Amino acid sequence: MASPILRPFHPHLCPSLCPTTNRCTIEDFYSARQPFRVVYPSPAIFPWQRSMCSNHASTIEDRLRSSPFLASILARHNLSHANSGMRRIERQGPRPLCNGFPSDNDLRSKTALIIESRENDPSTWHIAAREIYDFLLTAGFEEDEIQVEIWNSKLVHELYSFPLPDNRKILAAMRSVEPKVHGVVRTGVLRDSWTAISYHMTGPRLDERRAVPTVVVYCKPGTVEDFLSAEREIGRVLDEHNYLDVQLHLEILPGSTGLASPSRKDFNPGLAWRWLYEDGVDEPWNGTSIGSEGSTQSGSLGGWVGLHGESGDIMEYAMTCYHVVSTGDVDNKDANDEHGIGLNGTVPLPHIKVVCPSPVDEAETRKFILQRPARQSMEQFEEKISVVGNVEYGSGNRRRSDFGSRLDWALIASPNLTNSLRNKTPEAYCYDHGNSDFREYIATHNPSHRLLKISDSQMAGQWVCGVARSGSCDGIINRMYRRVRWDDGFGESMELEVLPNWGKKWFCQEGDAGGWVVNANREVVGMLIGMDEYGCGILTPLKDILEDIKRLTAYGVSLHQPRWGF
Known SUPFAM superfamilies for this protein (predicted)? Predict the structure, then answer.
């Protein structure tokens, strides 16, 4: 047996650690594994991304550059030659869906003075960070708006997730411990706080050679537990596999898996550019932003399918996720969640009108245009606003048979939409040019191509790409399922996950729910329904969705092809 590998724990970097119970927050537990990223005051935001700081912070930063007091602190802790700057640190990905998530000023975003050191002795960094923080409070910052980060980017532990390789021993070791890991997580210390269990390769984003096989257990952000005991519980299970030359690693991280279109206003100006510069396109296309009329929820249009009636007629429908459009019928939402929409002979509820773009994206794009009146006209944008149609069928909150995986689909009647971009293959961008699937896809890609068929091949390990509200993306379907404990009352399920391709930070972003994912052969693999904060997507195979539609509506169903063919 090969003992599992655990990263060293540094108690002095865990301010919430209780000396009598060993309980601490999940954020501090993770930070205590990162001696070369010191944050004061805690908690550290993770996973994180940087953005520009406010004008207020920039003004204070300008004054700090000439401060002899700040210079003396840096010199005292051997940080004089470090680079420093103000940035906004934000939690990467969507707002976690778990109940009781702390306020924005706690775990979601902060202004941070980032000091990047080249030193390899961090023993006094925590003291330095505290002294600098106290000084910043006298310079004009409030207590809840500023943090100090000191880190060495060369030595900090990078923790990106990537798909498992086609390695027989690694896969066998992972699969042998999977049921035992689930058992101890479900009944042990983490029984009330875990949100998902995954099996990944983890390591630096740009160095595949340093990635290691890792069992990843995610816990609700803000959770307080005895994570050291939990780590020992799971570690004993990982010690029991019989593959002597495979060493499994263990990570317990803050994070949750949720539906990929949470109901909140979240707008990226890049979305406006997509709308303004799709020249000559006045109707929805695969991946475009959609939402229910009057709703604050944004999702993506997947593509078009045809339902075949007994007379041979083909009825045309656009597909997206049920949860993307369900908020358009608030009065009947509970019934729709339980029974679905228009299924098993029930009367469809036609008053869920789906519009393109979503109401939130329309409003924010208008603001964006008004701020730049010389660049584009409002009239051009208004020509692109359209009605996709009314929802006639929807899955509700249901499961498919294998592993109890989630079914989440809706069909929108759209017989009058005939634009040239319907079911067009998505563009793909990938740094991994050694990937033969990617090279083949790019070599054969033509803007006039349409999606060929529904994939029924083995999905594990496939390179895939997709297009959704946030743009184009590509990734790899992992070779093991993710076990998810949904926070919306759905319970547990096993789900296919798509991980970012090597070199990428994420596969999907918020609002991408409903987007279709295709493989290198231009076959539709599935529809994106969920994601986590680390940019991993949750995928439902499209063949399973179509089988479910056929069973519940009594119609034949197929991938819709434009009347003019290829």
Answer: Trypsin-like serine proteases
Interatomic CA distance for residues 187 and 256, integer angstroms: 19
Provide the pLDDT for residue 546.
Answer: 93
Residue in 528, 486, 478 with CA at minimum distance from that of residue 256: 486
pLDDT at 331: 85
pLDDT of 513 higher than 60: yes
Q: Confidence band (pLDDT; 50, 70, 90) for 103?
A: very low
pLDDT of 174: 94
| Beta-carbon-side half-sphere exposure of residue 441 (alpha carbons within 13 Å) | 27
Q: Alpha-carbon distance 21 to 103, whole Å?
A: 26
pLDDT at 284 over 90: no
Tokens of 136: 């910043």
pTM score: 0.89
pLDDT of residue 100: 36
Compute the Cα dihedral for 497, 516, 320, 276 and give only its sign: positive
Residue 123 identity: S
Please name which of 377, 370, 385 lies closest in space to residue 288, comparing C-alpha atoms.
Answer: 385
Q: What is the mean pLDDT of residues 45-65?
A: 82
The single residue listed with the structure tokens 């943090």 is 147
The span from the CA of 136 to the CA of 61, in Å, is 10
Q: How many CB atoms lie within 10 A of CB 166?
A: 10
- Calpha distance 40→250 (Å, rounded): 26
Strand partners of residue 86: 113
What is the rounded distance in angstroms from the CA atom of residue 200 to the CA atom of residue 294? 40
CB under 8 Å, gap of 24 or more: what pairs does 494-497 form? 494/402, 494/403, 494/404, 494/405, 495/257, 495/403, 495/405, 495/406, 495/530, 495/538, 495/539, 495/540, 496/405, 496/459, 496/526, 496/538, 496/539, 496/540, 496/541, 497/198, 497/536, 497/537, 497/538, 497/539
- For the record, the structure tokens of 34 come out as 């990162």
- Which runs of consecutive H residues, i.e. helices, occur in 307-385? 322-325, 333-339, 359-371, 378-382
- Give me Rg for the CA atoms of the chain: 25
pLDDT at 245: 85
Q: Is the peptide bond before 179 cis (omega within 30 degrees of 0)?
A: no
167-188 average pLDDT score: 95
Task: Using the CB atoms, write b or e for 33-44: b if 16+ within 10 Å.
Answer: bbbbbbbbebbb
**β strands within 92-145, DSSP E:** 109-116
pLDDT given for residue 373 in this prediction:
65
Helix (H, G, I), strand (E, B) or coil at 51: strand
Alpha carbon of 324 to those of 251, 259, 396: distances in Å? 32, 9, 11
Tell me 309's DSSP state: P
Q: Which pLDDT score, from 0 to 100, does residue 547 have?
A: 92
Give the closest residue to 101 by CA, choosing from 272, 303, 255: 255
**Cβ atoms of 39 and 10 closer than 8 Å:** no
Q: CA–CA separation, 456 vs 545, rounded Å?
A: 12
